[in-house]
Amino acid sequence: LSLLKRDFAGRIYHTVSGTLAHRKGFATYYTSIPAAEMLATLSVAVLLGLDRKPITKLDEKEVKALVDRIKKLRVADFACGSGTLLVASFNALDRVLRTLRFYHDIDVDVDDIEKDLVEKGIYGMDALRYATQIASINLSLVAPSTIKRTNVYTVYLGDIPNVGPWLGSLELIHGLKGVKGLEGFLGVASNVAENASTSQGFLAMPDQFDLVIMNPPFTRATGRTKQFKEQGADKSLFGFIPDQKVKEKLVQRLNEIREEARDEMIEIAKGLRLPKDIAEILTDKELREYLNIGQAGEGLLFLYLAYKYVKPGGVVAFVIPKNVLSGVSWFLARALLAAKFHVKYVITSSDSDNGFNFSESTGLSEVLIVAQRTDEHNDHEETVFVNLLRKPTSYLDAIVIANNVLDGDDVVRASDREYAVIKKVERSELLENLDNWGIFASFPVRELVDMVIDMMNTGIIDVKGHRVTTPLTKMIDLIESIGVDAHQFHNSFAVVQYRTPYPILYSGKESVREKMAVSPNAYAEPKTSKGGELYKAKSGRIVLPDRISWLTTHVVAMYSEQPVVSNTFYVVRLRSIKDITMEDAEKALVLWFNTTWGILTALLYREETYGPWSRVKISQWKLIPVLDIRKLDKGVVKALAKAFDVLSQEKPRRIPDQFDVKNVDRVRLEIDKAFLKTLAPELNEKEIEEYLYDLYRYVQAALKIWV
Q1: Mean pLDDT computed over every residue of the chain
Q2: Which entry of 25, 73, 188, 643 is 20 to 30 Å from 114 by CA?
Q3: Alpha carbon 274 to chain centroid distance?
Q4: d(CA 37, CA 701)
């Protein structure tokens, strides 16, 4: 328990400091101690090459080189808060040095090396003065002897006279040498020596670092509307700044830096050797949302900043929203990581009891990433995805888990419990799935991950040795249009209490989404003439969700008896297919989405916000693999449509309750059996049921852990 109280002052500070607008604006999340120690242990091991060769196998020459390397290391956190990650990095280096001393006869003073690390090797910056003071104190306390100085700075965020808007550490993207008029604003060192505050600025900062480790601010002008309204607070970006003109300047400056980063990352992405369907994201206007990084918040910009400052061979280590793996707005971040780094470790949590986060004071799903800077690649570079079944709750368990991962174990155990499942992915697979790395950490059951990815890649469902051909394609190849989103809906339509020519599906209540067939439940009037045109262009019958709570979802897709638009669902129109009626095609596709394979595919492409609360945005639906109706005989499509008609009014249980092998949902079983019988009529009933029950066991196990 005492080990978890190391950052006690930081815990109090981040809980009580400032208004809601202040805490949201500065994104005052801070890393839990176990997560910090796990991330730092992996990062230091990669940096020092100990992921390839453990300390016990080093020869005398290698030991000497390792000690010399540690003496020269430079570590940075550009948004250090109370210093948790910097302290964890120091601890990881301390363990390496003391392990070296235990196994090898090294003639060095470990205490002197560690004192130099704190005074010369570790750098922290933050926009909150009290946070940097705590960080400086924490670093001083972990050092083995009296510390005369630290390199922890308070950076300015605001409008500087004669200079202009200043975004704190993000201004480091351009470097600071040669900038005039910043005395007193560059940064004040929060030292613990007698001459504590000195305006040294960043000019004394190294040009590059060996390790950049961060839990960067992640904030957007969204969420918690009710709380902000109750407190009379401003939820907009930089809403904690009372001067409207200053706030506008900062927003403009942020947009400038964002556009600059975006343009460079697009050029970097163009240099990657990508499969044709992924490369099209960079040029297809239908997918331009993937090139917009605005919704990724500041976290992506700090990742870009780390790329600017890490040495070749150095390491970046981040606690970052899980959407970095699958989010549309994070596509260019994945391209940057794939081009300029060897992504070594990706750690996610499926621990529904202890949370999907690695930061305190937030429940948002997060991920730990460790990546090594390199411009030299080969297709067989390996990335290890670690899906935690249970997050470590102690300092010691965190280190044990990290060491198990470094040992290359396929299943991670600590304290006689299974803690994580591992999936190892080659670089070629990362590039082939640059639109969505989340598939590799989609389920906490590796067999299920492998099964679904194999089905998506081959179009084959293996039923007891029978290969059922299931042709798949990206949905963008089948659709004429998809939309509208909630923003467009509310800008274009007013919901009315009387009948109009504009039927709609309104509300995302559970009662609206209990079965595959649905009817309009409200009417709208266009607010402008463009609203009428939008309705004409976008209304349709296939209804797909935007936000999904997998806890309460019964079906993934629905079919409306009349064309509609919706405020909470996307509506899809298909292109015409020769010899197949539009109605049959639509019903067959809705049935596919509600098979177990369709549900699992949607889960693979989710953009996870908080565990089972997730989104699948328009651009993600466009790229999701779906049944390629064009390659099916028209009789097969008609039979699938008929199966839909038979089952469309049935109400399956909520998805997490459908796969209990002791009490399988009847509708679930009938949908899957109808699909398999239609595509492979030679299969007998016994083979189908045996296969499905085996599949349901994997799905049930995954959902039981996750939700």
Answers
A1: 90
A2: 188
A3: 21
A4: 29
Q: How far apart are alpha carbons 308 and 331 in whole angstroms? A: 18
Burial class of 505 by CB neighbour count within 10 A (0 to 12, 13 to 18, 19+): buried
pLDDT in tens, 296-340: 989 999 999 999 999 999 999 999 999 999 999 999 999 999 999
Does residue 646 have a pLDDT over 70? Answer: yes
Residue 383 pairs in a beta bridge with: 425
Rounded CA-CA distance 86/71 in Å is 16
Question: What does the pLDDT read at residue 2?
Answer: 40
Beta strands in 393-489 (DSSP E): 411-414, 417-426, 460-463, 466-469, 472-474, 479-483
Residues 6+ apart with CB under 8 A from 57: none
Amino acid at 142: V
Task: Report strand pairing: 607-610 vs 460-463.
Answer: unpaired
Q: What is the DSSP letter of 543?
A: E
For the segment 444-465, the average pLDDT, to the nearest whole number, is 95
Backbone angles phi, psi at 29, to 5 degrees: -95, 145
Tokens of 494: 């007013």
Return the amino acid letter for 161.
P
Q: What is the average pLDDT across 652-659?
A: 98
Measured distance CA(481)–CA(536) in Å, rounded: 11
Q: Which helix (H) or strand (E) holds 563?
A: strand 558-566
Cβ neighbourhood burial of 166 (10 Å; 0-12, 13-18, 19+): buried
b/e burial code for range 217-252 (CB count within 10 A of at least 16 → b):
bbbbeeeeeeebeeeebbbbbbbbbeeeeebebbbe
The pairing of strands 310-321 and 209-214 is parallel
Cα dist from 209 to 150, 204, 206, whole Å: 16, 13, 7
Q: What is the DSSP letter of 144?
A: S
Flag whether pLDDT at 80 surpasses 50.
yes
Question: Which residues contact residue 1 at a Cβ distance below 8 angstroms, ignoring those fewer than 6 apart?
Answer: none
Cross-strand bridge partners of residue 543: 558, 571
State which H helix or E strand residue 196 sits in: none
Is the pTM higher than 0.85? yes
